[in-house]
Amino acid sequence: MSDGYRVARLDEIEEVDDGRCPFRPVRYRLGITAFGVNSWTAAAAGDRIINEHTQDDEEELYVVLRGRARFEVGEDKVDAPAGTLVFVSPDERRTAFAEEDGTTVLAIGAVAGRAYEPDGMELWAPVATHYQAGDYDRAIELLKPIAEQHPEYPTLLYNLACLESLTGRKVEAIEHLRQSVERSERSRELARDDPDFEPIRGERSFEELLEVTS
Amino acid sequence: MSGYKVAKLEEIEEMGDGRCPWRPIRFHLGIQAFGINSWTARDAGDRLINEHSEEGESGDEELYVVLNGHATFEVGEDKVDAPEGTLVFVPTNTRRTAFAEEAGTTVLAIGAPPGEAYVAFGWELWAPALPYYQSGDYDKAIEVMAPIVEEHPEYTGLYFNLACLESLAGRPDDAIEHLGKAIEGSPRFKDMARSDTDFDPIRTDPRFEALVA
C-alpha cells in the first residue's frame, strides 16, 4: 500500500468463521503484507481459541491481550494470563483454551529468512466448511470468483486447483495451478506432495508444472 | 530454533537509549521472522514512540497495538485517538509518533519489510554504545561495540553501525571491512550506506564505492 495509514478497533473487526474458532482478520483488514496477524476472542470460558496445529515454516508469537488462556505446547501446559507472550517454533504442536469469558489472543506469524506471502486465508474461510464437508462443487462455486478477483493471493488459486482436481476438472485444475505457481514458487513445492492432486498426478502438463524452471 | 518460549511482558527488562525505554520482546524470545517491541509510559504525556519513518531504515511496515491505557498517535498530519484495543498500521514512509494519555499506557509495535525477508538488526545490543555515538566519542563507542559484534555475528546490522563508528573515527580500513560484512549479510545495507552521512569520511574511497555499487 502507498502512503496512507489505517486505524481499527480490534473489537470492531468483524469475525470470520471457517468452522473452527472464529477469528478477526487483522492483517487483511489493515492491508498488512509483511507479516500475518489475527486475533481470537473466546465467547465463554473453556472455548478453544487456537486450533491444534503445527506450521509448515512460520514462527508464531501469541500475545494474551485480555482474560486468561491455557496453552498446550508439545507435552506442556502453559498458564497464560493477560500480558503473557508464547513464542512457538514452526514444528511444535500447539493449541489454546480460554480460562475466562472474553479471553483474547493476538497471533503474529512470519517465516524466518523469507519474505512473507499473505495467503488470503481470510477469503478462504467461507469456503473452508464446504471443502471440509466434501462439497467440492459448492466450494468451487464460491471460491472461483474470489480467487480470480484476488490474484495477489496465489494460495487461493492453488486451493481452487485442488478442488478442481478433486472433482475431475483437469483442464481447469492445471490452469489455476499454473497461475498460482507463476506467482509463488511455494505453490510448486506444495503441489508435489499434496494428495488433492492425486487425480491429475502423472498428467504430462501437471508434471511439467512441477519441474523447477528457475 | 525448536521448542517454545514463554515470557510475561512486564518481566522483560526494559532497555533505555536516552529516549523512551522499551522492552526487547523479539530479542528476548529469539524471534527471527519479524520485529516486536513494547513501550510503557511512566506518566501521562510521555512520548511512547519516537518520531520517525522507516524509509531508508529497516523499510518496515509497522503495526502498533495499544495493549492498555490510552495513547494519541500523530501520523503524517493527523492526530489519532487510540484507547486500549486500537490498532494503528503505518506504512514504511509515513512519519509517526505517539504519546501516552495515561500513566502506564503500553504499546506493542510489530514490524517487517513487505516483500523481503526480515533481518534482525540487533538494536538491542547497540544500546550501550549509543550515548558515546551521540556525544561524538567514537573511539569509546568502538571499544564498547567491538566485542559485542564479535559475539553476535548473526546481527549484521551491528557490523553496519560499527563501520559507521570506524568511518567517523578515521579508521577507514576497519570501516570498509565491517561494512563489507554487513552487506554480505543483507544487501539492504548498500542503500543505507549510500545515504548515511557517517560514511562521508570514506565516501570517495574506491573500496567504499565498490562496496555500495
Key words describing this protein structure:
heterodimer; A: 214 residues; alpha+beta; Jelly Rolls; Serine Threonine Protein Phosphatase 5, Tetratricopeptide repeat; 2 domains; 4-stranded antiparallel beta sheet; 7 helices; 26% strand; elongated; B: 213 residues; 5-stranded antiparallel beta sheet; 8 helices
Structural class of chain A: alpha+beta
Overall mean pLDDT of chain B stands at 92
CATH superfamily of the largest domain in chain A: Jelly Rolls
Q: Give the overall average pLDDT of chain A.
A: 92
Q: Biggest interface in this structure?
A: A-B, 49 and 48 residues
The chain-level structural class of chain B is alpha+beta
Please give the CATH class of the largest domain in chain A. Answer: Mainly Beta
Give the % helix of chain B. Answer: 25-40%
Calculate the terminal CA-CA distance of chain A, rounded to whole Å: 28 Å
Count of helical stretches of chain B: 8
- Radius of gyration of chain A, Cα only, in angstroms? 18 Å
Tell me the count of domains of chain B: 2
- Strand order across the largest sheet of chain B: 2-3-10-5-8
What would the CATH topology of the largest domain in chain A be? Jelly Rolls
Distance between the termini of chain B: 35 Å
Fraction of residues in β-strands of chain B: 25-35%
Strand order within the widest beta sheet of chain A: 2-9-4-7
In the CATH hierarchy, what is the superfamily of the largest domain in chain B? Jelly Rolls
Tell me which oligomeric state these chains represent: heterodimer
Q: How does CATH name the architecture of the largest domain in chain A?
A: Sandwich
Give a verbal description of the structure.
- The complex is a heterodimer of chains A (214) and B (213).
- Chain A is α+β, with helices and mostly antiparallel strands and 214 residues long.
- Chain A has seven helices and nine strands, in the order E-H-E-E-E-E-E-E-E-E-H-H-H-H-H-H.
- Chain A has a four-stranded antiparallel sheet. A four-stranded antiparallel sheet of chain A has the order 3-8-5-6, with no helix packed on it.
- The model of chain A has no long low-confidence stretch (mean pLDDT 92).
- In chain A, helix 2 (121-132) runs antiparallel to helix 3 and helix 3 packs antiparallel against helix 4.
- Chain A has two domains: 10-111, Jelly Rolls; 121-210, Tetratricopeptide repeat domain (Serine Threonine Protein Phosphatase 5, Tetratricopeptide repeat).
- The two termini of chain A are 28 Å apart.
- Chain B is of the alpha+beta class.
- Chain B folds into two domains: 9-112, Sandwich (Jelly Rolls); 123-212, Tetratricopeptide repeat domain (Serine Threonine Protein Phosphatase 5, Tetratricopeptide repeat), CATH 1.25.40.
- Chain B has eight helices and ten strands.
- In chain B, strands 2-3-10-5-8 form a five-stranded antiparallel sheet. Chain B has a four-stranded antiparallel sheet with strand order 4-9-6-7, with no helix packed on it.
- In chain B, helix 4 (138-151) runs antiparallel to helix 5 (156-168) and helix 5 runs antiparallel to helix 6.
- Chain B is globular and about 55 Å long.
- The mean pLDDT of chain B is 92.
- Chains A and B meet through strand 1, strand 4, strand 6, strand 7 and strand 9 of A and strand 1, strand 5, strand 7, strand 8 and strand 10 of B.
- Strand 7 of chain A pairs antiparallel with strand 1 (4-8) of chain B, so a sheet runs across the interface.
